[in-house]
Amino acid sequence: MLATLLRHDxxxxxxxxxxxxxxxxxxxxxxxxxxxxARWVAFQQDAISEARAEERERLERHETAIVRINRENATxxxxxxxxxxxxxxxxxxxxxxxxxxTPLAPLAVGQSDLLPSYFKITTDAxxxxxxxxxxxxxxxxxxxxFDLAFVLIxxxxxxxxxxxxxxxxxxxxxxxxxxxxxxxxxxxxxxAAKVLLRFTVFLAAVVGLALLASLIIGVxxxxxxxxxxxxxxxxxVAGYGLFWFAAAVAVSALGKPSATNAMVLAxxxxxLVVLVPSLLSMAATAIYPVPSRVExxxxxxxxxxxxxxxxSKLLAQYYEDHPELVTGDxxxxxxxxxxxxxAVAAEVERRVRPVLDRYSxxxxxxxxxxxxxxxxxxxxxxxxxxxxxxxxxxARHRAFVQQVEQYHERWRAHFVRLIxxxxxxxxxxxxxxxxxxxxxxxxxxxxxAGSLAGVAVPTVLLAVFAFVRLRRYPLVG
Amino acid sequence: xxxxxxxxxxxxxLRDGRxxxxxxxxxxxxxxxxxxxxxxxxxxxxxxxxxxEATRTQWLNQPAKNPHSAAHYGMYAFKPKxxxxxxxxxxxxxxxxxxxxxxxxxNEFRYRPAQDRTAIQRFGELTAxxxxxxxxxxxxxxxxxxxxxxxxxxxxxxxxxSLGVATRDLVAGKALGVAAALGLVIVPATIIxxxxxxxxxxxxxxxxxxPRAAWLAVxxxxxxxxxxxxxxxxxxxxxxxxxxxxxxxxxWFANSLIVTRAAADLAAWLHPTxxxxxFQTAMERELSNQEEMRVRLDRRREELMRRYNVSSMxxxxxxxxxxxxxxxxxxxxxxxxxxxGGLFERYESQNRAFQWAGLAAPMLPVRSLSMALAGTxxxxxxEFVTAAEEYRRGIQRVMNDDIARNSKPGAAYTxxxxxxxxxxxxxxxxxxxxWAMRQAAPSVGLLLAWCVAACWLAARATRRLGVV
Lengths: 477, 468
Description:
A: two-stranded antiparallel ribbon; about 0% strand; B: 3-stranded antiparallel sheet; about 70% helix
C-alpha cells in the first residue's frame, strides 16, 4: 500500500514545477555555500603558512646573525641583539601558535571568522598577546557568511515548509483528499507516505549535494575522525529536517486552509530561527553584561604606572617570591633594567587579574544561560552541532586559548629564567614549542549528541501531537 | 470612496486575531530592543567618556621626562558611541573600541565587543533596525497579501468593481488601509524610540541627532511603502491568495536574509583583503627599510644647513634628534597611509559592491542607509580612526618640535606639565547628516528606484484587475 502511495505521490509531486524549483535553489545554495566555506579555509591556511614562513625566515636570520656577531665580536644594541634573551622573548624569537582548521572546516565557518586562529607568542602580557585578531571587513562579520551551515539552518527548513505546508490542505481544497481516503487507507498512512517521500527527496538532495561539493573542494575523507563526524553531520541534517517536517505536519493536522498554514509556519520559522536566538542573545547580555574593554585598558594603565613607580622595590619582592631565581649579587641586580621590568610586569598582572577575571566570569555566565536556553530553538542546537562537527565552534576555540595561555606561561618562565641567569642564546633550538592537542572525537561526539537529542525531543512531541490530532482531521468544510 | 475602502481594510485587519498578535509582537520587540539599546548605549558611552577623561588626566599628570618618553607613553583613543546606535548598532560590535596612540606606530583598534559574546549573537542582534528591516515587512506581507487575491477568491472583487468603484480609488484605499494598520504599530514604536533617545540627554543635547533621526524615519517609511506596493502588486497579479502568500514569503526571505549574505560573500570575492599576517609583514618590511631613512635624514641635514646658512651640523641651532624623530614619523605615516589606506579602500570597495547588490533586494540600501544615519557604518568608523590617527600625529609633532627646539645634543633633557598641556584634548564630533547622506548616496538612489518601480508595478498590476 505504502509503495503505491509513494509512487503516486511522487508522480504528482514531480509533475509540479515547485519541487524542481526547490531542488534547484537548494543545489545552487549548497554549492555556493560549500565553495564559500572552502575559500575561507584556504584563506586561513594561507595565513597560517605565511605566519610559519615569516617565523622560519626570522629565526634563521637571527641565528645567522648570532654566528656573525660572535665571529666578528661585533657590538650591537641590546634591543636588537639576537643573543639577548629579553629581546628574543619579546620580539626577535616570537613564535606563532596555530589552531589548524579541521578537514571538515569548510562545512561551517562558525566563529572562525571572528575568533583568531593564530597568535604571536611573546613575553608581553597575556592580554596583549591574545588581543590580536584577523583583519576582516566588519561589515562582513556583521552580515555573516553564506556557508553551508547558513543554508542548512535557514534555507533548508524553509524549503521543507514550502513543500509541506499544504500537505493535506491542498488535497482537501482540490477535493482529492476524500477521494483518496475512499480507498482502504488511513489518513495517517497517507501523511506518513507523503512525509516519507519528501523527507527522502530532501535528505538525498542535501547529503548527496553536500558530499559531492565536499569532494569537489577536496575534503580528505581518509583523515582520522572525518567519517564519524560526517555521520554525525548527516544525522544532524536528518534530525533538523525531521523537526521541520514534524512541525509542518502538526500544523497541517489542525485542519486549517493552506494560506493559514503558510502564515503559521512562516511565523514559527521566524520565531525559532530569528527571534528566539536574538532575544536569547539580548537577554544574556542584559543579565550578564560584559563591560567595555576600555575598563581593562584603564586598569592596566593605572597598575603599570603605579608598578613602574615602585620599580626596584618590586624586584626585591619578586626575589622573595622566587628565591630560586637569585643568582649572584641580588643587590646589584636591583639596578638591572631587564630584571626590574620582569618584576613590574608580574606585579601589573597581579593587580589587573581581578578586572580580567570579571570579563571571563561574565562571559562564562552568559554561556551558561545560553547553554541551558538553547533548547528553546532547534536552530541554535543545529548551529552548535554544525560548528562542533566542523571544529569552528566556541568550545574548540576555548580549548585552544587555554593551551595557548599555558604555552605563554611556559614561554615567559623560560625567558625569565634566562634573563635572571644572564644567559646568552647561541641558537634557538631550545625555544619552547607549541603543538595543539585537538579535542578527542569522543568529546565532540558527546556534545553533538546532546544537541541532536535536543532537536529530537520536540520532534517526537510534535509527531505525537500530529498523530493524535490527525484522527480528528476535518475532511470536509 | 477611497477612505471607505481604507476604513473597511483597517477594521478587517484589526478584527483579525493573528494580526493583533503580530502587532503586539512587533511592538514588544521594538520596545525591548530600544530598552536594551538604551541601556547598552548609556553604559558604554559612560565608560568610554570616563576612560577618555582618565587617559587625558594620565597624560597631563606625567612626571617630568623626555618628550619622546611621553610620546611612547602615549594616550588611548576610545571610540564614542553614536546616540542613534541604540536604533541600529551596525558594525559597532565588530570593530575594536580602543587604540593606543603611541610613538612610531599606527595601532589597530582592538577589542571587538563581539568577541566577548556567545556564538548565538551571529544569528543577528535584535535592534530596532532589525525589527524594522526584517519583522515589519513580514507583517506588511501578511496584512496585505489577501488585498486583491482574497477578494477575488471570495468573489467580492467582481461585486466591488460592478459598483463602479474606480480602480485607482480601490488601490489607493487598499494601500491606505495597510498603511493605517501599519501606523498603529509604527507610531507607538517611534514614540518608544524617541523616549529612549530622550533618556540619553545626560550625554549632551539631542539637537545634533534630530536631522539624522528624521532622515532615518523618512528612509524607513520609503522602505515600508515599497514593501506595501510590492505586496499589493503581487496580490493583484496572483490567481489565489495562497500563491500571493507563497510568492511574497519567498520574496521576504530572499530580501531579508539571502541577498545580504550572498552579496557580502560575492563582494569579498571581487575585492579580496589580505590576512592580518600578510598585512603586517608587508608593512613591517617597508618600515624597516633603513636605507631610505638614511637618505631622507641626509636630505634634512642639508636643508637645515642651507636654511641656517652654515656648513656644519654642529652650527645648526636646533637639536637634530628631534628632527630625526619627526622624519621617522613622517616616513612611517606615509607607509601607514598607504597600507591602512589601501586596506580601508578594499573594505570600501567591498561595501560599494555590496550596496549595488541592492538592485536585487530593497532591504540592502535601507540597511546601508540606516547604519550610515545611525553613525555605525564603516565610513563613520573610518572617519573616527582617521581622526584618532591625526591626533596621534599631532602629539608626535608637538613632542618632537620641543626636542628639536629646547634640548641640547648629548645632554639629558626633560620637559614637564606645560608641554603635556600643549597637546590639545582629543575631541571627536560625529560628522553632519549631509556627510552621512553623501557617503550613502547610491543607496538613496537605489531605494528611491525600488520605491518608484514597486509603485509602477502596483499601478500596472491593478490597472486591469481580473475578477476571476
